[in-house]
From TrEMBL:
UniProt keyword list: DNA-binding
HTH luxR-type domain location: 270-332
Name by which UniProt lists this protein: Helix-turn-helix transcriptional regulator
Keyword DNA-binding appears in the UniProt entry: yes
Species this chain originates from: Phytohabitans maris
Highest taxon, organism lineage: Bacteria
PANTHER family listed in its UniProt record: TWO-COMPONENT RESPONSE REGULATOR (PTHR43214)
UniProt xrefs under InterPro entries: Sig_transdc_resp-reg_C-effctor (IPR016032), Tscrpt_reg_LuxR_C (IPR000792), WalR-like (IPR039420), WH-like_DNA-bd_sf (IPR036388)
């Protein structure tokens, strides 16, 4: 297959959320480029393969491929892919629980939200959302995801818009169901429909739609989304006393979870944090992993004493007594 056609095929599957097919094409393109001895093309295919792996939550593979691509773009970046690679690495390192490295990569991303770069800017905002989340700044993360959705709509990228709307929910915000459902009806793709189904489950705190979405995500190779939806569905079933269904969902999502084992997201956070704490206590605990009580108070508009009270109650519920134990509990 001609290289340009192969590239278009990969990007089309990636844009449609079909990571299984996109991954097959990316691997084929990479092998062909290596065999042809074309370094610039090898870097490009490493970048595309890294994007697929990052979306799937395969962080080790994503880091290796994107790192190879960045090195190649240092020598030849004719198409200015390096900054997009940096944005992807920001998200990957944030998901891996390294906020400082994530912020460093994000600082390398240039451009603006309008003008010729507006097509890529939603991805930069989404990377910023996950970097904010890695620092425990949940409200900032949700706001960035919503900005990404608006930028994607302005750029005519409905699939990216739908993914960003769902990311706002994944990050702990409220899902804009009306807008997400409209996009799913308009697109009619399995990925968009799965996003809408998962959004419905989050909005209604209903394990049924989340469990069905988890299966749909897994069929598309969306391992991270499948693992998250499965974990959330299992928690909701367990709370409702439906322990048999909770066990089945957890068993079904074991495969996707094992393939993205190093990913750290709010929906995959330790069950004790998710279930035992109030929303405010969770927010304070996530921030406490990296920030002082004074910083948290300033960020949330609270008194330092109030922050410490929230923290004390959370520590008591979780059976811990320090920020180091918070970081350990969160796998950071």
């Amino acid at each position: 297959m001609d290289a340009e056609i192969l590239e278009a095929d990969c990007l089309a599957h990636l844009a449609a959320g079909d990571l299984r097919r996109a991954g097959v094409v990316a691997e084929r393109g990479y092998r062909q480029a290596v065999a042809a001895g074309a370094p610039a093309t090898v870097s490009g295919w490493a970048f595309f393969g890294g994007l697929v792996a990052a979306a799937a939550g395969h962080l080790e593979a994503a880091g290796a491929l994107l790192g190879e691509a960045v090195d190649g773009f240092e020598r030849d970046d004719t198409f200015r892919f390096r900054r997009h690679c940096a944005a992807a690495l920001a998200a990957v390192t944030a998901l891996g629980g390294d906020p400082d490295e994530a912020a460093r990569w994000l600082s390398e991303v240039d451009g603006a939200g309008t003008g010729p770069d507006r097509v890529s800017w939603p991805w930069r905002e989404l990377a910023g959302a996950w970097v904010a989340m890695s620092r425990g700044a949940q409200a900032d993360a949700v706001a960035a995801a919503r900005r990404a959705a608006d930028l994607a709509r302005a750029a005519g990228l409905p699939t990216v818009e739908a993914a960003a709307l769902y990311d706002a929910g994944r990050l702990g915000g409220r899902v804009d169901r009306k807008r997400l459902d409209a996009l799913a009806a308009r697109l009619g793709t399995p990925f968009a429909e799965a996003l809408a189904l998962a959004g419905q489950g989050l909005d209604r705190s209903d394990g049924g739609p989340l469990a069905r979405a988890a299966e749909a995500f897994e069929r598309l190779g969306q391992d991270l989304l499948a693992a998250e939806a499965g974990a959330a569905a299992a928690r909701l079933f367990r709370r409702a006393g439906r322990r048999g269904q909770a066990h089945l969902v957890r068993e079904r999502s074991a495969g996707p979870r094992s393939r993205c084992a190093s990913a750290r997201t709010p929906m995959l956070v330790n069950d004790e944090v998710a279930e035992l704490l109030t929303a405010r206590e969770r927010e304070v605990v996530l921030l406490a992993a990296h920030h002082s009580s004074r910083h948290i108070a300033q960020r949330l508009g609270l008194e330092v004493k109030t922050v410490n009270n929230h923290l004390a109650r959370a520590y008591a519920k979780l059976g811990i007594s320090s920020r180091a134990e918070v970081r350990a509990l969160l796998g950071q």
